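Fold this: Ribosome biogenesis protein ERB1
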Amino acid sequence: MGFKSVDKKRKTQVPESESDDELAGGFFDGVLSQSEDDSDFVADDDDDDDNDDQDDSASEGSQDDEDDEEDDDDALLSDDIPSDLDGEEALGKLLITDDEPEIEVPGVDPKRQDVGDEEKNYRIEKDANGGERYVYDEIEPGYDTDDTDAQGPANTIGDIPLDFYDSYPHIGYDINGKKIMRPASGDALQNLLDSIEVPKGWTGLTDINTGNPLNLTDEELELVRRVQMGLIPNELHDPYPDTVEYFTSIEEKMPLSSAPEPKRRFLPSKNEAKQVMKLVRAIREGRIMPYKPPEEREREAEEEDEVHFDLWQNEEPQDANPMHIPAPKLPPPGYDMSYNPPEEYLPTKEEREEWEKLDPEEREKEYLPQKYGALRKVPAWSEMVKERFERCMDLYLAPRIRKNRLNIDPNSLLPKLPSPSELKPFPTVCQTIFRGHEGRVRSVSIDPSGTALATGGDDGTVRVWELLTGRQVWSVKLSSDEAVNTVRWRPSKDSFILAAAAGEDIFLMVPSHATVTPSLDQVSRDILAAGFGYATHGQQQPVAVGKEPAAKWARPGTKLEDEGVLIRITVRSTVKVIHWHRRGDHFATVSPSGQRSSVAIHTLSKHMTQIPFRKLSGLAQTAAFHPLRPLFFVATQRTIRCYDLQKLELVKVVQPGAKWISSFDIHPSGDNLIVSSYDKRLLWHDLDLSNRPYKTMRFHSEAIRMVRFHRGGLPLFADASDDGTLQIFHGKVPNDQLENPTIVPVKMLKGHKVVNKLGVLDIDWHPREPWCVSAGADGTAQLWM
């Protein structure tokens, strides 16, 4: 019993002590009890009691640690019941404590037998009348008692909010008027552990009455879950019980009598008799045919035999194209389509007559506004079927798709070209006009030194001018019948030799000029005369008997020799083009009407003429030697063929795509080619890139007669057209083959007059300066600087 008294003292002290260490210790014990792995921990008797207390608290859930200790004490007392072997003395002592006291006087506490102070479970107090009053100790239910589900002390504060007790250590009073102490709250670490180790049934709520954490049982949690899910709270309740069939669905025909109805029950209907008579009368009059005629039956049979195919039977639905545009909706009706439109929308008599006279296709509207007194008087729309059909046809035959509109600035599509002012120098103005020829000036050429200009015209004369002053210094008449078609200087500074073609004759001459010294004149004459000795003593190619030679080399006569014309070469047809080789010993001539002998190569040092082509596909228009390599280019009407003079084979066929090639020129670097045509086009070719034109330019309204590159290293080229203009271009060819040529039109020169639809016929560049000379059909030659 002494052990019990000690426990009672501890019971009175525990509720008043709110030590955080004890609470934390209790929490950690609970945590450690879940691990069940305390092999290193040795518990004494007190620790065992505490563990039992914790087990009791886990089973009851709402009692304090002190109540658990009382339950343990009571459990120990209940376990002290002696057996038969313990003796009668212990049994008698137990009976004394268990017997109920006898009540002698009603309303007065019975007298108890004297027992020891240590064994008394009551105390004697005086009441208000001065009498004795026995106050018994409260019996705490233990683990083995039947009152383990008893609730803790109820808070009797009523409707008073718990916020009023925030400043007090208690939260209310129980039924006996005792203070209910506030449950201890853990520190930050305990709150963290509470958030990590959530006990079973934890809700995070607080009981309003007790202030303790509100934990729910499994049954209560299941009830809350079912309510949240919209289910019936009672799991055993069946919301859809089986229906009880009060009537069967089987019909059983069980007539009361199977006898037929008597005739006396039949009453004929007069209304039906009238309808029958109407049908009979209609059949007699032929308005109703009881049987279909044979023709109609045959037609129906044929229609039944016809097979109709469903075009859309196997059509599978497809997702709408993201670029699909839905069909536009019809516009809403206006005032003129109303059944009661305003007066200003109604047509007059003249407007109605005019509308009726027009054809349906020419009418602005397919209807005329009409006015009706009421909506029920409006007739059906006569054009509804036609209107719907046209609408369906529009939707079927006019599919729509959304196309993104490109917002592109037109100026951004143009190539970014440098400004012409940045590409100077190039010719811009006419400096000198050379007049003296009668008729057209067909050809011009500047000598390699850049001081003399040679011209040839329709008057059959060749004239030599001082380039800067425009003064004529020499002239010779080669023919009175034929025009001088072309003049070209020999491309060498060690001589002063000019070649000119008039009709079928080619003349080689040494003109007199202020810059020509006697030694230079003699050297030039020796070069021309050297071929005569070779022709006499050298080895000539034998000519077949009866075959005409390719050309005849001879002296022109005393009169022309005195004027400086030293050699005349006669070929088979009229010569239009002369082109010198870069070394000056060979030159090629082209006679477009010469057929097989249209192209000839002449050797000056041997006085020899050769026909390189036995058969040429197409009519030859012009020819030229490559400026660096042993290549020979021949242009027909549509193509330009390149031949290797060493290997004597065809190397390349350039296809400009022009209808009729007029002339071409090769860039000094030898990798690019420029072609002019009579169909107003200028075509740039990159020989290393393709046989098709790299760029096509159209800057003239008439045919282009001639095109020339500058030979002095300047990135310039020019063309001459029948519209009387010259177009100057900046054409730079980079050394890097990965870069494209830069072609920029910089200037259009106007000065020549158009005569009989002929403008500028020939053009030539100065060998060093950015100057050019043009020959016009107006009988003049002009120097542009």
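The longest strand covers residues 742-750. Residues 2-229 form one domain.
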